[in-house]
Amino acid sequence: MCGIVAYLGHREALPILLKGLQRLEYRGYDSAGVAVHNGQLQICKIKGKVSDLQAHAEQFDLHGHVGIGHTRWATHGEPNDINAHPHTSGHGRLTLVHNGIIENYATLKKRLEEKGHVFKSDTDTEVLVHLIEEVQEMGDLSLEQAVRLALNLVVGAYAIVVMDAKDPGKLVAARKASPLVVGIGEGEYFVASDATPIVEYTKKVVYLNDNEVATITLDKGLQVHSLDSIEQPYETHEVNIDIEMLEKGGYDYFMLKEIFEQPRTIADCMRGRMNAREGWIKLGGVDEYSSRIENADRIIIIGCGTSWHAGLIGEYLFEELARIPVEVEYASEFRYRNPVIRENDVVIAISQSGETADTLAAIELAKKQNALVYGIVNVVGSSIARATDCGSYIHAGPEIGVASTKAFTGQVTLLTMMALSLAHKRGTIPKSQYQQLLYELEEIPSLVEKVLEQNRQIEYLAGEYKDAANALYLGRGYQFPVALEGALKLKEISYIHAEGYPAAEMKHGPIALIDENMPVLVIATNQNHHDKIVSNVQEVKARKGQVVAVVREGDNVISRIADHVIEIPAVADPLSPLLAVIPLQLLAYHIAVMRGCNVDQPRNLAKSVTVE
Ligand code: G6P
User: Is 607 among the residues known to form the active site?
Assistant: First the structure.
């Protein structure tokens, strides 16, 4: 949450900061601000989006070659101009941007107030910048020394960048449990919450580790120290992101672009990792730890939001195919409920961003108890990718729309490959079934393409249901998590209340809600127990509910009862979520657009949740 960008070099800082903030807007978009040094410190900040900041900035002289910027997702203090970052210290010397939460801010604030500090905002961030100045002025310290000492007094999570008006050729950045990347160009440096604002200028990046403080000047370059002032070595990485990946490429919204990218992203996830004709699956990360994973007593899958839904599909896959018991947990619950974790458990952490605070904390807990932790992550070099013992990237490329789409299908593809590989090695499915599933899996990208061809029809359906106040999503077996994911997509971007339910559970409560105004989306592609889902559809129709059913091609039983059907190609049940979720993504998208919602930046949400 909150995006940070900073620049030091020979170019004008402001355009780099503004463009960088736009790239980071998925992290938060309730207010934004920049500070530039051009002989004196100039600050411009405003409630609203980066585009509002851009317009506002035209009134100021913000020329200069060093600056910091921020786009905010409020934690302490409502989103307004005053609470927007950057924040300045009491004497106006320091200015700082921050992502995270200072947990002991109240104690620190009280102590600073006793020393005469006066605060303008309600934020924990302002307390931090006052603290750094207090420490700096007490000991006549350099900025980096003051930052290191002050951070030793801080409890919480942070990624910060600070500038000192008395030493304007320097940026000091630090992180703990919030991401920060330093970009190294030719005679110029960048700092950002992720690499997306940087790749346009340089592909060389350094990922800061927790409790590290980076000092950047043009003459000495980048220096990294621990909080106790010991110089730290760092590695430079090459990032593999092209600018086109960060643009909308002709689509109205990133979300639509990302939905349509799925044939390619699913294929990219499988590329080089399996070959149906030759009958093999090879996941680098799994192979290295294969005997521990194959012999796991139990798999525990942790994640949040959409990643948790992918985990639920993983549970069905691992249990049915590989016969390994699985538990799926919200990371936020797992970390606080003192779970039983044993050495022979394998924990799979799923995260698109690789930065979700609860998932990271849950990983630490599992590692402390000696479980093997495997990461399924999209963002390369992210904190979760680095915190896990081993893992696989899903290779979906940058996902910018706040509602996750291509990351979900990437996660499910990866879990499917893992489950099939384990099933094969453990001998829990017949060779012929393994082979058949591999062939079908390889076909999924072209089948997704076929489902996407129904975009117009789904847009028409969206028109029919755009004014609904509620919606119910039902599914059985593999399609139950798909129902949850479909409902999540609808509520997060269109603000229609939607619930996902196991189809058979409907009669234990939600059936009371059904009347002629209630659209019920039934994901009814199941080969197994098809008659059961037919009964569920009939139960809805008997109460005059409007049924939109996602069915397998040629299903003329449900087609006769449902009000509308969306047909998807027939595949084996374990692979069906990869196809069935596509129409639900499109439906949510079109409904949200028709309701005038900002699909890529839904209210109150952020893509990367780096606070608890
Ligand atoms: C936020 C995002 C969701 C995402 C969830 C977990 O809520 O809006 O789209 O599923 O975080 O994020 P992660 O990056 O860990 O998958």
Answer: yes
**What 3-state class would DSSP assign to 33?**
strand
Take residue 312 and report the two structure tokens written for it: 């639920």
Query: Which of these, 213, 211, 173, 212, lies nearest to 193 by C-alpha position?
Result: 173
Tell me which residue of 484, 560, 568, 495 sits closest to 526, measured CA to CA: 568
Place of tokens 């129902």: 483
pLDDT of residue 506: 83
Ligand 1 contacts CB of residue 402 (under 6 A) = yes
- Tell me what pLDDT residue 287 has: 67
Give yes or no for residue 352 CB within 6 A of ligand 1: yes
| CA angle in degrees (0–180, nearest 5) for 235-238-241 | 140
Amino acid in the structure at residue 357: A
Distances from the Cα of 136 to the Cα of 114, 129, 130, 142, 610, angstroms: 18, 10, 10, 7, 28
Nearest CA to ligand 1 atom 1: 607
Pairing of the two strands 470-475 and 156-164: unpaired
Among 363, 489, 607, 608, residue to substitute to test ligand 1 (most atoms within 8 Å of Cβ): 607
Provide the pairing of β-strand 204-207 with 189-192: unpaired
Using only the alpha carbons of the chain, give its radius of gyration: 25
Nearest to 471 by CA among 488, 454, 455, 457: 488
Report the distance separating Cα 389 and Cα 371, nearest Å.
Answer: 9
Buried b (16+ CB within 10 A) or exposed e, 549-567: bbbbeebeebeebbebbbb
Cβ of residue 378 lying under 6 Å from some atom of ligand 1 = no
For ligand 1, the distance from its centroid to the CA atom of residue 402, given in whole angstroms, is 8
In the block, tokens 């994911």 appear at: 485
Q: Of 2, 269, 390, 597, which is the active-site residue?
A: 2
Residue listed under structure tokens 């004709």:
277
How far is the centre of ligand 1, averaged over its atoms, from the C-alpha of 168 (Å)? 37
pLDDT, residue 608, reads: 75
137 CA from centroid of ligand 1 (Å): 41
pLDDT at 567: 96
Instruction: Provide the pLDDT for residue 516.
Output: 87
Question: Quick check: CB of 332 below 6 Å from ligand 1?
Answer: no
**Does the CB atom of residue 416 touch ligand 1 within 6 A?**
no
Residues 482 and 473: their CA atoms lie apart, in Å, by: 9
Q: CA 212, CA 394: separation in Å to the nearest integer?
A: 28
In which residue are the tokens 């309701």 written? 595
Q: What angle do CA 211, 216, 217 make, to 5 degrees?
A: 155
Closest approach atom of ligand 1 to CA 356: 15
Specify the length of the chain in residues.
612
Q: Ligand 1 within 6 A of 488 CB?
A: no
Query: Active-site residue 109, yes or no?
Result: no
pLDDT of residue 227: 96
Q: Is the CB of 413 under 6 A from ligand 1?
A: no
- For residue 339 and ligand 1, the question of a CB distance below 6 A is answered with no
Output the residue whose Cα is nearest ligand 1's atom 4: 305
| pTM of model > 0.70 | yes
| Span from the CA of 30 to the centroid of ligand 1 (angstroms) | 18
* Phi, psi torsion values for 437, nearest 5 degrees: -65, -35
> Which segments in the chain show pLDDT lower than 50?
none
Token pair listed for 157? 């999570």
Give the active site residue among 109, 176, 491, 607. Answer: 607
Whether residue 191 contacts residue 150, with contact meaning beta carbons closer than 8 Å, is answered with no
Q: Could you identify the residue written with the tokens 């002289």?
A: 61
